[in-house]
Amino acid sequence: MVQEQDPNQDVDIDALALRAADGDKDALDQLLALIQPRVRRICGRMLLYPQDAEEACQDALMLVATRIHTFAGRSKFTTWLHAVAANSARSTYRSLKRRSSELPSDELPVSADPRTTSVIAGSRLDLLDALEVLGATHPLLVEALVLRDIQELDYNEIALLMDLPLGTVKSRIHQARKTVQPLLIVKL
Questions:
Q1: How much is the pTM?
Q2: What are the chain's domains?
Q3: pLDDT tops 80 at residue 112
């Protein structure tokens, strides 16, 4: 049996991103097509419903298209992309939450019933709410925590992306975990 080769497998995504950052429109088009599945997965890790993840994905792709000139190649493009997509997912969550709070009470969507909501879905919502609290009280801690614990980047990639010393990144992640832990304790 012959295995089909992925045509994107041999693409140097960092070189493509740098060409796009320099204004190459064809490189940008190719880059956006190449990263769309990855961005959708990143957003899907944070948002419960596929439609919400798709909305965040489209917002993230728009941000990449309009902000690619800020990618300087100091870190891997995929590291930069993870931050953009994670921030887009958090922004989409905030927007959805704000929109639902503005609806009249008779138009509110049915709230989640803990007996029928999966543990994963419920904990994801709890985490997003905890990130909102963390963002309001300690905004410098959020990005490092999201990149490490949700996007699963390693500490060195995070340090490069955030342009911070490794020790500072580790300290921020530790402090963020300590801050959100009480917010994530399961209530029975």
A1: 0.63
A2: 12-103 (1.10.1740.10), 117-188 (1.10.10.10)
A3: no
